[in-house]
Amino acid sequence: MSAGAARFYQFADSPFCAKVRKILDYKGVAYEIVEDYLDRSALLAASGQLMVPALTLETETLVDSERISLRLEELYPQPTLFPEGARGLHLALARYFGVSLEDALFRATVPDSLAYYRKLSPSHEAWWRLLRERKYGDGFCEAMVREHKANYTRVCELLTPLDQDLSERAFLLNRLGYADFALYGQLTYLTFTGNNKLPPELSNLREYYDRLDRISSQLE
Q1: Long-range contacts of 48-54 (CB under 8 A, 24+ apart)
Q2: Which long-range contacts does 154-159 make (Cβ < 8 Å, 24+ apart)?
Q3: N or C: more exposed end of the chain, with fewer CB within 10 A?
């Protein structure tokens, strides 16, 4: 299948959108970004639902970052997301990053998300708060602001073992693969505002993030 233009529906602060964007870049797939946080009518029309990421290709629209990634691997098998013999490990790591690590990073960066959407408009901030408090309960956002230090400490605890292992390798399992894109996406929680808030003491992880951030269809 040739790499024709696709439509990619995203929100800027979504780590799952960041993961898919980087995979599209890596595979050299041309795409147009569609983003409107308040008016999701185009997203609804294309995908039949209101969640991102969603990707419209020539004849299909896909939702869910893993489903999108696996379909891209089918359509554009090279460069591969799954080095030989490591598919299961990459999937397992990616799923851990997308659940346990994601929850910790999300909670630690609620103050950043509030500030980001506040800059866009009061309506953006109000809608972001409403959706989170509908899911997590009234007062959730303010609780995360109060608990920011403890939440950030938890993130550091989870990231430190990864930082230690990355002192000896460029990628998580030596060769670039799906888990690397999943971790990169989660780390964008700490960078999406334009300020890199990855803990400065985790220097290997910061270098790793920068390495992934530079990846396109032409590997360094």
Answers
A1: 52/9, 52/10, 52/11, 52/14, 52/16, 52/17, 53/8, 53/9, 53/10, 53/14, 53/16, 53/17, 53/20, 54/8, 54/9
A2: 154/104, 154/107, 154/108, 155/104, 155/105, 155/108, 155/190, 155/199, 156/199, 156/202, 158/100, 158/101, 158/104, 159/198, 159/199, 159/202, 159/205
A3: C
Report pLDDT for 216. 81
64: left (phi over 0), alpha (psi -120 to 50) or beta: left
Condensed to tens digits (0 to 9), the pLDDT of residues 123-178 reads: 999 999 999 999 999 999 999 999 999 999 999 999 999 999 999 999 999 999 99
pLDDT(117) > 80: yes
Q: Which two tokens stand for residue 117?
A: 């959407």
3-state per-residue secondary structure call for 131-190? HHHHHHCCCHHHHHHHCHHHHHHHHHHHHHHHHHHCCCCCCCCCCCCHHHHHHHHHHHHH
What would the two tokens of residue 188 be? Answer: 């964008």
Q: What is the mean pLDDT of the chain?
A: 95
Cα torsion angle, 163, 159, 12, 62, sign: positive
Domains, the chain, with CATH or none: 6-75 (3.40.30.10), 87-214 (1.20.1050)
